[in-house]
TrEMBL record:
Catalytic activity: [(1->4)-alpha-D-glucosyl](n) + ADP-alpha-D-glucose = [(1->4)-alpha-D-glucosyl](n+1) + ADP + H(+)
Protein location: Plastid, Chloroplast; Plastid, Amyloplast
Taxonomic lineage of the native organism: Eukaryota, Viridiplantae, Streptophyta, Embryophyta, Tracheophyta
Name the record gives this protein: Starch synthase, chloroplastic/amyloplastic
Native species: Nyssa sinensis
Pathway: Glycan biosynthesis; starch biosynthesis
C-alpha cells in the first residue's frame, strides 16, 4: 500500500529569534514518517491569513493549540519551537510573501539514494528545506587552528550550511600557544559557563568561549591542556602524550554545549545533529549512546561521523579505557585487538582501545570526503584494519567531495599573491610566477616549467616517491618548489636537495599559509603523488588558480582531476590534469614528462587545460546540498544505538 507522506516547508525568511534576527527558520510540518524520500511536486502554499488575524496581532491560539502572532513585517508567527526540556529554541514564522513549498513523499518509492543526491543538486536553487541545529565537533577549524585540510573544511563548510538557513555551532579547543598567533581568539568572549566532566580519574572543569562570525557560533572549549606551544597535536618533540585526554575532554564538552550554552539567547537543544570529524571527535557518538540516551537525553539527536583520514584512529592501550568516562559495559564498542604481526613482543596481547572504531559502531551515519575514498576504506588496502567493520555499515556510508572556500582562494582577489588574474585575463599569473621565483631566490625564468608541492611531509603524501624521482627530474630544465613540514627525515632531505640544486630546487620547511597561496598561484604544475587521498584540497586550489595538477589516481584525486586527453573534442582536448597510476617513481615521472612537454610545446592546449580547471565549480554549495540529504536520511532512521 502506498502511503502519501506530506512534508510542508515554508521557505526561509527572517528568523524571529529576538537575539539573532539575521538567522533563518523554516517551518516544517510532517505528517507520518517515511523511510525513503522522493520529491515529486513543488507548489506554492497558499496561506490563510484572515483580516482579523492581521488586525489583532499578538499571540493567539490556533486549532492545534499552538500560538500564533503576526510579526511586524506582516508575516505570521505560528508559535514557538521547544526542545524536550521545554526551552524555547526558536519561533515558527510564515513569511509575509506567502512563498512556500509542499513536498510529497511516498515512503515505498525504491529511490536510488545517489539519484536523490543528483536530483537535489539539480534543484540547488531551491532554498533549504529543513533546517537543523548542527554541532560540528573538530580538533581544528580555520582560521583559528589549522594543520591541514580538516581545518579548512571545518572552517568553511559550517559557514556554507549556516548560509543555507541552518543553525550551526562549531566546537573546537581554544589552543593558546603563548605567542602573537593567540590574537586569533581575541573576539571570542568567555561565556562564563563552567562544566564539570567526569573522566580521567576525577572531575575536570572546562569553560567555553564564543564568537558569532559569518552566521556561525564558534565555540572554543577552554582547558589548561590546550594552552601550550606547538600545533594542536604536538610540537618539535613529537605528538603530545596526553592527546587522548585533551580530545576526550573536547568530546565531553561538545556533548554538553548544546544543552548548556544559551547562544543568542537559546540553547541548541536535544534535537541537535552532531557532525563528528575524525577520531578526535569520535567519542561523541559513543557518549550519546552510552551516557546520555539511557537517561532520556539526546533521544532525538543524531550523529554523523565524517572521516577525513582513516589512518589516524586514536588508538591507546586498553587500560586507558577506564579514563574515558564511559560505563564499563561499553568497552566492546572501542575494543581493538592488533593482529599478531603488529604486536611488539611475545607477551603483547595486542589489546587496545580505538576511538574511531567506537565512532564507527555508534554513529548514525558515516561520511567520507569523496565517493572514491568511501569505497576505498571498505577494501583491505584502504581500510587500515577497519574495512570489515566499515563494510558492515556500507548501507549508511556515503562520500561527498569537499568544496573549498572560494573567497579565501580566489586569484582575482587573493591578498597573498603578487598580481591578480582571472580566466579572462591570465596575464597576472606569470607575474605571480616571477614574484615567487624572486621571493625564493630562484633564477627568474618565466618560461621554465615551475612545479610545486604543498603538504604534510608524511607517508600519505608519497614524499618517498618524490624523493626517489627528484634526482632524475633535476636533470631536466625545470624548477621545483616544495612547502611542507612533518617527518624530520624529509625536512632534512629538502634542505639537502636545495643545497645541491641551488638554481632548480627550493624546500620551504614549515607551515606558512601566505606562501602556500603564492606557490599555488606562481607554479605551472602542482604535484600530488599521495599514496591515498580522502579528498585533497590542494589540487582544487591549484585548478582554481590555473595551475595544472599531476596526481596519483586515488581517492578524491581521481574523483576531482580529469585525466588529460589531447585528442578529444576534435583536438581541443579534454581534462584538467594528469592522473597517474600505479604509484611509482616511473609512472609519476612519465606523467610529469607529459605535462612538461605539453607546457613547452603546446601552449594553446596548455591554456585550455588551465581554463578548464578554472571553470570548475568548487563552491561548498554543491556539497552542502548533498550534506543536507544525508542529514535527512539520518533523521529518517531511528538512532542507530537507542
Ligand atoms: N606547510 C604548509 N604550509 C601551509 N599550508 C599547508 C602546508 N601543508 C599543508 N597545508 C595546507 O593544508 C591543507 C591540506 O589539505 P589536504 O586536503 O590536501 O590534506 P590533509 O591531508 O591535511 O587533509 C585531510 O582532510 C582533508 C579534508 O577533508 C582531505 O581533503 C584530505 O584528503 C585528508 O588527507 C591545504 O589547505 C594546504 O594548503
Amino acid at each position: 500500500m502506498e502511503t502519501l507522506q506530506t512534508l510542508r516547508i515554508l521557505s526561509c525568511k527572517p528568523y524571529l529569534n529576538p537575539a539573532e534576527t539575521s538567522r533563518n527558520l523554516v517551518v516544517v510540518r510532517q505528517v507520518g514518517f517515511g523511510s525513503l524520500w522522493r520529491r515529486s511536486t513543488y507548489r506554492s502554499l497558499s496561506l490563510r491569513r484572515s483580516v482579523e488575524d492581521r488586525k489583532e496581532g499578538g499571540f493567539r491560539s490556533s486549532q492545534d493549540g499552538s500560538s500564533t502572532l503576526e510579526d511586524d513585517k506582516g508575516g505570521l508567527l505560528l508559535g514557538t519551537e521547544r526542545d524536550d526540556s521545554g526551552s524555547v529554541v526558536g519561533f515558527q514564522l510564515i513569511p509575509p510573501s506567502g512563498e512556500g513549498k509542499v513536498i510529497e513523499i511516498h515512503d515505498d518509492q525504491a529511490t536510488d539514494r545517489e539519484e536523490v543526491i543528483k536530483d537535489v543538486e539539480r534543484e540547488d536553487k531551491i532554498p533549504t528545506r529543513v533546517t537543523r541545529n548542527i554541532v560540528f565537533v573538530t580538533s581544528e577549524a580555520a582560521p583559528y587552528s589549522k594543520t591541514g585540510g580538516l581545518g579548512d573544511v571545518c572552517g568553511s563548510l559550517p559557514i556554507a550550511l549556516a548560509a543555507r538557513g541552518h543553525r550551526v555551532m562549531v566546537v573546537s579547543p581554544r589552543y593558546l600557544r603563548g605567542d602573537p598567533s593567540d590574537k586569533i581568539f581575541a573576539n571570542a568572549v568567555d561565556l562564563e559557563c563552567l562544566v564539570k566532566v567526569y573522566c580521567f580519574g576525577g572531575v575536570q572543569e572546562v569553560s567555553f568561549f564564543h564568537e558569532y562570525r559569518a552566521g556561525v557560533d564558534w565555540v572554543f572549549v577552554d582547558h589548561p591542556s590546550y594552552h601550550r606551544p606547538g600545533n594542536p597535536y604536538g610540537d618539535s618533540f613529537g605528538a603530545f602524550g596526553d592527546n587522548q585526554f585533551r580530545f576526550a575532554l573536547l568530546c565531553h564538552a561538545a556533548c554538553e554545549a548544546p544543552l548548556v550554552l544559551p547562544l543568542g539567547g537559546f540553547t541548541y537543544g536535544q534535537n541537535s545533529l552532531f557532525l563528528v570529524n575524525d577520531w578526535h571527535a569520535g567519542l561523541v557518538p559513543v557518549l550519546l549512546a552510552a551516557k546520555y540516551r539511557p537517561y532520556g537525553v539526546y533521544k532525538d539527536a543524531r550523529s554523523i561521523l565524517v572521516i577525513h583520514n582513516l589512518a589516524h584512529q586514536g588508538v591507546e592501550p586498553a587500560a586507558t579505557y577506564d579514563n574515558l568516562g564511559l560505563p564499563p559495559e561499553w568497552y566492546g564498542a572501542l575494543e581493538w585487538v592488533f593482529p599478531t604481526w603488529a604486536r611488539t613482543h611475545a607477551l603483547d596481547t595486542g589489546e587496545a582501545v580505538n576511538v574511531l572504531k567506537g565512532a564507527i559502531v555508534t554513529a548514525d551515519r558515516i561520511l567520507t570526503v569523496s565517493q572514491g575514498y568511501s569505497w576505498e576504506i571498505t577494501s583491505a588496502d584502504g581500510g587500515y584494519g577497519l574495512h570489515e567493520l566499515l563494510s558492515s555499515r556500507k548501507s549508511i556510508l556515503n562520500g561527498i567531495t569537499n568544496g573549498i572556500d572560494v573567497t579565501e582562494w580566489d586569484p582575482s582577489l587573493d591578498k597573498h599573491i603578487a598580481s591578480h588574474y582571472t580566466i579572462h585575463d591570465l596575464s597576472g599569473k606569470v607575474q605571480c610566477k616571477i614574484a615567487l621565483q624572486k621571493e625564493l631566490g630562484l633564477p627568474i625564468r618565466p618560461d621554465c616549467p615551475l612545479i610545486g608541492f604543498i603538504g604534510r611531509l608524511d607517508f600519505q603524501k608519497g614524499i618517498d616517491i618524490i624523493l626517489s624521482a627528484t634526482p632524475e627530474l633535476m636533470q631536466d630544465d625545470v624548477q621545483f618548489v616544495m612547502l611542507g613540514s612533518g617527518e624530520r627525515q624529509y625536512e632534512d632531505w629538502m634542505r639537502a636537495m636545495e643545497s645541491v640544486n641551488r638554481n632548480k630546487f627550493r624546500g620551504w620547511v614549515g607551515f606558512n599559509v601566505p606562501i602556500s597561496h603564492r606557490i599555488t598561484a606562481g607554479c605551472d604544475i602542482l604535484l600530488m603523488p599521495s599514496r591515498f587521498e580522502p579528498c585533497g584540497l590542494n589540487q582544487l586550489y591549484a585548478m582554481r588558480y590555473g595551475t595544472v595538477p599531476v596526481v596519483h589516481g586515488t581517492g578524491g584525486l581521481r574523483d576531482t582531476v580529469e585525466n588529460y586527453n589531447p585528442y578529444a573534442q576534435e583536438g581541443l582536448g579534454e581534462g584538467t590534469g594528469w592522473t597517474f597510476s600505479p604509484l611509482s617513481r616511473e609512472s609519476m615521472l612519465a606523467a610529469l614528462k607529459n605535462a612538461i612537454g605539453t607546457y613547452r610545446e603546446h601552449k594553446s592546449s596548455w591554456e585550455r587545460l588551465m581554463k578548464r580547471g578554472m571553470e570548475e565549480d568548487y563552491t561548498w554549495d554543491k556539497a552542502a546540498v548533498q550534506y543536507e540529504q544525508v542529514f535527512e536520511w539520518a533523521f529518517i532512521d531511528p538512532p542507530y544505538v537507542k
